[in-house]
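> tool_call: predict_assembly(chains=two)
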Amino acid sequence: MIKVENLVKTYGETQAVNDISFHVKKGEIFAFLGPNGAGKTTTIKMLTTLLRPTSGSVFIDGLDPATHQNEVRQRFGIVFQDPSLDDELTAWENMDLHGALYGVTRKLRGERTEMLLRLFELWDRRNDQVKKFSGGMRRRLEIARGLLHTPKIIFLDEPTLGLDPQTRNQLWTQVKTLNEQEQVTVFLTTHYMEEADRVAQRIAIIDHGRIVAQGTSAELKRQTDTETLEQAFLALTGSSIRAEGADSADAMRNMAKMWRKPR
Amino acid sequence: MNTIYVLWLRQLKRYSRSRARIIASLGQPLLYLLGLGFGFSHVFEKAGQGNYIQFLSPGMVAMTILFTSIFSGIELIFDRQFGFLKEMLVAPVPRLLIMIGRTLGGATVAMIQGLIVAVICLFAGFRPSFASIPAALVFMLLMAILFTALGTAIASVLSDFQGFQMIMNFLVMPIFFLSGALFPLNNVPVPMAVLAAIDPLSYGVDGLRTALIGTSHFGMSLDFLVLVVLSAVFLVIGGRLFSRIQL
């Protein structure tokens, strides 16, 4: 479903992604792990048509995102690291707008919106403006929205960041349910190793723009001779803390926080 | 087509839900109308230029459209900050359609605000010729599209609000003050006349004034031509810049 070969992205002198290759099979849950600044988000951006690779090839369901932008966009749903909902609109309106943009017919839009909002337990709040939602509800709504157009792949970029364990647990259960029901391929990133261990069938670990290991959780543990995935992760990527410069997006995120009403 | 419609509708929903914004954006023209309109009407009449409220009202409508349109375009920065821009950029639709939908939505909002101010002007004593209202609406719409597209173009290259104040001070306010919205452009000094002639709003104000009260500076057909050409130009530029946005 996703095929990446010798993918490279350079910004001037720095190599954000340095010659990575991996495959994700149809219906698989694939975790892409790595410390901050390892190249996860850059890779996701290249897979999702938002960024052009410097070299190497990407195929999403057999199509190149660089040349078949809209066909590829139709095939995936994405939940970004930071929110991307319209706060002024209601949950229903956010779903409906998404469906219309993806060319889902009105009837199907209604049916899928109801099914997904019920699954993610937001149906009772469908007519409330998103600005009244808690962090967990927003995340659930984003995932529901990403799945509305029945994509073949859903990208989840740190979807559980800042959520409490209960919400995280429930969220993954719901994602797994959909993965089984609709055969949607899940490509996720997270910093919570136990989550990756629990939901992902296969894992790739990226560091300094290179994939340092990939395989099932058991394989990674065996390879590093460790007990838990977290230990395996640390063994592979070292324990030094990564320096990550604040870019303008981070500055904006902070601004956005300032603008938002404290809850 | 559907893309344009849903994004147009989104702008209208956002507008109708922010009452604070509606009221705040009406405060300014109201203040100008009271302060300048009633303050200067005596002097204006003494100078042999006729009724100042009559002269000023089309200018106030144009001003409202200018401010609302530019703001609607600049709202794109909000979309960037609050993240909705990303949702639009990964959607499987041409970015040009997204930009057009947003622009028409913003332009519609600006039209509504302009109409509200026009009604307020009626209460202040403005007496337009009602026969030419269709022509006036055309000029309002052209101004709304032109400036929303300009705002969108600007917002496409700004990544945050740091530059917003500068845009207001060095672009929007000069566009407003040099346009002849507040005073007649006949007999102004040459440098001023030149600046007014390159100010797109001058043509909007003039067209509106010609339609509503029958006094003209550039002539209605020139006004129309300039606005149509500039709207097209800004739509193309805005569309280009919007398509180039990278996250």
